[in-house]
Amino acid sequence: MKVFCLGGAGKICRETAHDLVQWSDFEQITIGDRDVAAGQEVTAWLNDPRVNFVDVDLNDRDATIALFREYDIVLDGTAISMNGRAAGLIAAAGAHGVNLNGFGDEYAWDEEFKAHAKTFVPGFGMTPGITNMMARFAADAMDTVDSVRVSHGAFRPVAFSNAIAETTIYEYDPALPGRVVFEDGVLKQVLPFARPLEVELPEPYGKTIQYIIPHPETVTLSQYLREKGVKLIEVRGTWPERNMQLIRALYDWGFLRNDCVRVGGVELGIMDAVAQYLVQSPEGQSTELYGYSLHVKVIGHRSRQRTCHTLWHTHPPSDGSVPGWGKLRAYTRCVGIPMAIAAQLIARGEVHGTGAIIPERAFDPGHVFAELEKRGIIIHERFETL
Predict the structure, then answer these.
(1) Comparing C-alpha atoms, which of 264, 88, 275, 75 is closest to residue 170?
(2) Could you tell me which residues come within 8 angstroms of residue 223 by beta carbon, excluding any fewer than 6 positions away?
(3) Is 202 in the same domain as 239?
(4) Are residues 179 and 240 part of one domain?
(5) Residue 56 counted as domain residue
(6) Is residue 340 part of a domain?
(7) Bridging pattern class, strands 266-269 and 291-302
């Protein structure tokens, strides 16, 4: 089988390709990107005869569809703003697909994927992705579910790439309709920095204050758990404390509205300018602590007993003591590896159904956790009777 890594020159999707080189049986692994120099650099770094590079432009619809038809699976590592377009091209090409973000446009192509008997899984990185698996794993063991609280700490620079800068602006846009909680049967929109909650993450992260974020787990879990009577689903997140201080100040001063301003006769969005400064500045490119930390708490009833099932994950440290996991790679590998695992499960026929499928219905959590463990990413759990 052949796999295409769209956006494969980026810092995250190159880790997806790296995992495929290490663990998969794909006969061809193609890095696809507009940045030719970066794509060739990644190809040389991977140093595997199965790996090649292709310059791809999603704006050229016909050429992109023809290219994707040569592959069994297309993995989309592009920015949020490109995901809907990419999913449509993958559907038209009749290939399987997975992306990292899963913010919703992908489901518009459900019927086209079904017509080709193909599967597309929107959002299979760490979060969304592994968080969905953790919540499903805990909820499946319960007769009814009262609440699900998904939390994560993404310890990475605020703008180590243009795509990450775009994610930052997107998630804290004050007008964003997708920043919701599921409460008493309906999705309710909330503002940035809503519902602060102290979440204890494992060392070296410790206690963090986390806020509601616009992640698709809220929507997909409300669909998956509908029959179990779930009353509350909240998804929170945080970045390093210094990053959060910056975003809070930008929010309080109105920068995150991205109002247009005139500078030297040129009109631009003020937050677009701030984002470009961060991408090009040392402050935007570094942080003190690197890594990822997931935390999922599900409360419900099992055999008439009220129960709390908490799951969290750990990964090799970012201090350089484990080769390949130093500094930023402790974050980017955590995000990129799950998409590679999803590709391998699809290739082995271990995916359930066709069409655009929410992560909770696509894979068996046990299969995913076993693959993560091979790579040093461990899911931990604790049961409590309430």
Answers:
(1) 275
(2) 358, 360
(3) yes
(4) yes
(5) yes
(6) no
(7) unpaired
